[in-house]
Amino acid sequence: GAVVSQHPSRVICKSGTSVKIECRSLDFQATTMFWYRQFPKKSLMLMATSNEGSKATYEQGVEKDKFLINHASLTLSTLTVTSAHPEDSSFYICSARGRLDYNEQFFGPGTRLTVL
Amino acid sequence: GQNIDQPTEMTATEGAIVQINCTYQTSGFNGLFWYQQHAGEAPTFLSYNVLDGLEEKGRFSSFLSRSKGYSYLLLKELQMKDSASYLCAAMDSNYQLIWGAGTKLIIKP
Questions:
Q1: Among A11, A74, A85, B30, which residue has the fewest nearby CB atoms (within 10 Å)?
Q2: Cβ B102–A46 below 8 Å, yes or no?
Q3: B57-63: which pairs have CB atoms within 8 A and are 24 or more residues apart?
Q4: What is the pLDDT along chain B (109 residues), one digit of tens a residue?
């Protein structure tokens, strides 16, 4: 199956700093990438959908200026958490969908963000 | 509105069989997915159903009834490593996944 990587896998930062998380599709072209957030013992919450070369579509309640998403190429999307606060601490997961198969999303391994 | 319902938690015994149910309501339908998620890890794909009926894949099987908006995941010969959360997700007409809250499966020896 297709492989999606995320980097870093774990990050600890201080309040007020910004953190960038990368999501890469390693062996296919991802026309669409999804960013999810997951709190402990809760299901995935879709934050935004990004299509290559266009602006991301954010879900209701997700701050665009807080969570900056860039999908500059067919293999890379980035999520930047700006001016991070402790309540931003969470598990962030990306998934990617290719051009040919709309019915499958491939998940990255996730990034554990802890804001002190 | 769109909604996915599945039990919060289930307990089963090693070697036994367990069925995890899922009901869904979506705007359009492009298939039903089951994912397994171990604590601290990303979800991994288990199955995809878009037509009515049962799909069998080793110890795991998934069933779909589109007219009832219902699916189940059947796990046979349970092993301790099957302890995980099982997420049901339905794909709507925009090819977006609508996620259930997940069912935590606890396997006891």
A1: A85
A2: no
A3: B60/B34, B62/B32, B62/B34
A4: 789 999 999 999 999 999 999 999 999 999 999 999 998 888 998 999 999 999 998 999 999 999 999 999 999 999 999 999 999 999 988 888 899 999 999 999 9
